[in-house]
Specification:
Elements (H helix, E strand, L loop, with lengths): L2 H12 L3 H8 L3 H9 L6 H17 L16 H4 L3 H12 L3 H8 L3 H8 L7 H9 L4 H6 L4 H33 L1
Helix pairs in contact: 1-4, 2-3
GO molecular function: DNA binding
Protein name: Helix-turn-helix transcriptional regulator
Length: 181
């Protein structure tokens, strides 16, 4: 796969709009499209700039606001055919919203996390333990099969978030009442 094909693949798999990349590069969408699809002038500098934009985009992407729904069909046969890296990406989206937040929670750099997601490195015991402690179902991560316990954990975490929000609301009401007297 050459650099142009790699960029096209990354744009497609991450669902990134060409207009966003073109805007960050300070060029027209048509120009960017020509460079990626047809031009022989696609050099390392353009490749590096686009790659950085894509990497920055995926680390800062916050896919969810508020409660994260848990689809019952997350672990269907279709999803079991994907690799460990893509499963880590799914886990990051579902639990943390961004890859950067997952990397922060794992106390590793976003670049190290990207190595696992891209398939350049396989996670070892230390990384798997960190993912496990953060609530990732290791059976699903390694083999694509969900254990019933991971659904129970998700439901408990959702209930915990709901109860914490209720407690925060009660604390705010108490604080307002105390300030008013």
């Amino acid at each position: 796969m050459n650099k142009q094909e790699e960029i096209k693949y990354l744009i497609h798999t991450h669902g990134i709009k060409l207009s966003m990349i073109a805007e960050k590069l300070g060029m027209k969408v048509q120009t960017l499209s020509y460079l990626i699809n047809e031009s022989n002038q696609f050099d390392d500098e353009i490749y590096d700039q686009i790659k950085k934009i894509i990497d920055d985009y995926q680390y800062e992407l916050n896919l969810f606001e508020g409660e994260i729904p848990f689809p019952n069909d997350l672990f269907t046969d279709e999803n079991s055919k994907i690799g460990i890296g893509e499963r880590i990406r799914i886990f990051a989206r579902k639990k943390f919203g961004t890859l950067k937040k997952l990397a922060d929670e794992m106390q590793i750099s976003p670049q190290q996390l990207q190595q696992y997601i891209s398939g350049n490195r396989e996670p070892g015991t230390r990384i798997l333990l960190k993912l496990l402690k953060l609530g990732c179902d290791i059976n699903w991560l390694l083999g694509g099969k969900e254990s019933f316990e991971s659904y129970k954990i998700y439901k408990l975490e959702s209930e915990l978030r709901r109860l914490k929000n209720n407690l925060d609301q009660i604390a705010n009401i108490i604080h307002k009442n105390e300030a008013g007297h």
